[in-house]
Design goal:
heterodimer; A: 111 residues; mainly beta; 5-stranded antiparallel sheet; 54% strand; B: 115 residues; 7-stranded mixed sheet; 4-stranded antiparallel sheet; 11 strands; globular
């Protein structure tokens, strides 16, 4: 099965900091990518989709480097409420639609 | 907001007992996934369905686990007999399975403890 690798962290940062996570994937055929956010004892929820070189939504920027097969998530001006685990998600390939989840990167934003 | 509904939310049972978890996907979604999450393994795919047909259940221990979709509004995951190592959170997720991208909406999960 194709792999998705993430730094597990935890990343401990102060409020207002900029933090970036990387995710590497092995399936070079993947065309679309996702970042999900999971709060403690909750279900994962979609944060961002990445279909081309990148995507920006407010303080969050996702970038895709197809040549090196990695995706990054940048969070600017981090808030206490950003504390969560961020899951990198890559389709397994083809048209079946299965998604491979990374184990997640834990972020803790401190006052 | 449309949501994926899972029952039960919590289940404590003894080793050897049968456990059935149920999932109601979002109306109109044609793909349904079952994932298991533990601290050690993260999210593991157990099985998924497209248009009620099973597409992949290679992640599921066949001797004790079974997954079915008796109709478009119900997916079930059954463990018989249950073992302590099955203790985990089981998530159901549904999506609109177009070619390539498949954005999933997760249910709140069923937290299983097998004693």
């Amino acid at each position: 099965r194709k792999e998705v690798e993430q730094d597990p962290g935890p990343f401990n940062v102060p409020e207002g900091a900029t933090v970036a996570f990387n995710c590497t994937y092995s399936n070079s055929a993947s065309q679309s990518f996702f970042w999900y956010r999971q709060d403690c004892r909750k279900e994962p929820k979609l944060l961002m989709s990445v279909y081309s070189s990148g995507n920006e939504d407010g303080r969050f920027t996702a970038q895709l480097n197809r040549a090196s097969q990695y995706i990054s998530l940048l969070i600017r001006d981090s808030k206490l409420s950003d504390s969560a685990t961020y899951l990198c998600v890559v389709p397994e390939g083809g048209s079946q639609g299965n998604l491979i989840f990374g184990k997640g990167t834990k972020l803790s934003v401190k006052p | 907001d449309a949501r994926v509904t899972q029952t039960p939310r919590h289940k404590v049972t003894e080793m050897g007992q049968e456990v059935t978890m149920r999932c109601q996907p979002i109306l109109g979604h044609n793909t349904v996934f079952w994932y298991r999450q533990t601290m050690m393994q993260g999210l593991e795919l157990l099985a998924y369905f497209r248009n009620r047909a099973p597409l992949d259940d290679s992640g599921m221990p066949k001797d004790r686990f079974s997954a079915e979709m008796p109709d478009a509004t119900l997916a079930t995951l059954k463990i018989q007999p249950s073992e302590p190592r099955d203790s985990a959170v089981y998530f159901c997720a549904s999506g609109l399975g177009l070619s390539g991208a498949n954005v999933l909406t997760f249910g709140a999960g069923s937290r299983l403890t097998v004693l």
